[in-house]
Amino acid sequence: MTTEIEKEKTETSNFLEEIIEAHIAEGRYPGGILTRFPPEPNGYLHVGHATSICLNFGLAQKYGGKCNLRYDDTNPVTEETEYVDSILADVRWLGFEPAGIFYASDYFQQLYDYAIDLIKKGHAYVDDSTAEEIAAMKGTPTEPGKDSPYRSRSVEENLDLFQRMRAGEFAEGSKTLRAKIDMASPNMIMRDPLLYRIKFAHHHRSGDDWCIYPMYDWAHGQSDSIEGITHSICTLEFVPHRELYDWCIEKLGIWPSKQYEFARRNLSYTVVSKRKLLKLVNEGHVAGWDDPRMPTISAMRRRGYTALAIRDWAKRIGIAKRENLVDLSLLEFCVREDLNRLATRAMAVLDPLKVVITNYPDGPGELMEIENNPEDPSAGSRKLPFSNQIWIEQEDFMENPPPKFFRLSPGTMARLKGAYIIQCDEVVKDAEGKPVELRCTYFPDSRSGSDTSGLKPKTTIHWVCGRCSIPGEVRLYDRLFTVEDPANDEREFLELINPDSLKVVPNAMLEASLADGKVGDKFQFLRLGYFTPDPDSTPERPVFNRTVTLKDAWAKAKG
Ligand code: ATP
Ligand code: MG
Asked: Which residues share a beta bridge with 356?
């Protein structure tokens, strides 16, 4: 069966590559292609941005070109240096190095000069109308708009007023600069779009140098042109802006960069909009931008996702011309594939039940040799202490098991991973009848690797030594939202937050080697999933995040 995603991939994933290959074939860009990733530094990058980064840098790599990072920082009010720094860190973590790092704000003077040029050519005018008046004169898609009473100002008057706007003579909102195009255009964007607005705001880079700021449409294409971007790739909502993009470049007579569009990527069970993510952070629904439940790149890193897995995922989903939800489980599948390859195996018990092995000598016992990664022989092995006291999972024992329960119950056997086969002889319970200790016997000739016992227990369970394992906190995550598409639900997205998206296990028992785990290390806790130390971790109190469970829901759905 072909899945929705595979189908879409074969249909559409190559359309940008086809365009670029045609350009290369006709020798249009002899200097090579140049793309750019243009984030607005008003938040942390999310998984949607990750697809755009992989696309822009990936195309440049594939065709021997280059890719710039350009901060689209033309809106002084929402932008912060913290975001600027996090964006570069995230791009680099994903595995890409920008050919150049630029800021649209570095072009403010050039953009202003371009505006002067446009005015001189009679293609722009200063409008004294208020925002409401401009909106009222805009018309509708079926009715033409009305000309502003200021539309016929002379070039001289426009030049004078625009220079005085720049000099700070006019109040915010009292004047704008507009392109003089066509108030009857079927494309509403072409009905004399705003190019500049007055804003007495401090900018994170240009400080108080400017009190007029260019609009997106007067900054983006021109910045592309200044840098010589050959393929300016953006999301579909900019399709109607393409006409204006080309118009500005043509009227200015500057280097012709070109815009191409692909569909924004939305991931199921989360939201990918910086505005919404900011709300989650500011209102305390999550612990911060890098809370491991967030869809940000920094959160995915903290949670233990690998850059390779994210790049692999972006490649697998390809690009589309139609917006749709991408299944979260495909990303998780890619993460599992990579972690299975590289994670060090370890054992941890989340819900400990004490086991006393009555026929094993008291005191520190043998060291069991266990391989660190069956997928990678070069990862070597480690010596795991065993003794007559161990911890196993509560759920690996049932006093009165149903028919298909193959783990421990009174009288049954199980193999302890990498150690011996034990048999449960007796259960000790507390006053409420809850099992608090199992008394077991082990079979001395059943040691893993040299088992001559002939016994065949139906299951292998994980365990840690009761004498030398260490307590630690384990954080288990679930989807942040209860519905597939919280951004397109009639209910407010904040009402759809999954109340059980974080489960903290305060006192798990971890094998002692995990005390040395560093942030960035990847582990597979046997039977429990993939885990990574959280930055909150200390040697005294390790804290682990569950990156993803072991269960492969994606393969099941596909089968
Ligand atoms: P947001 O709504 O989250 O702020 P944005 O598009 O305003 O998104 P920008 O910082 O302007 O964010 O985006 C930088 C680049 O990343 C743009 O080229 C944009 O098209 C791309 N991008 C943003 N979100 C997505 C997404 N969900 N899927 C694919 N590309 C995206
Ligand atoms: Mg934006």
From this structure: 389, 439
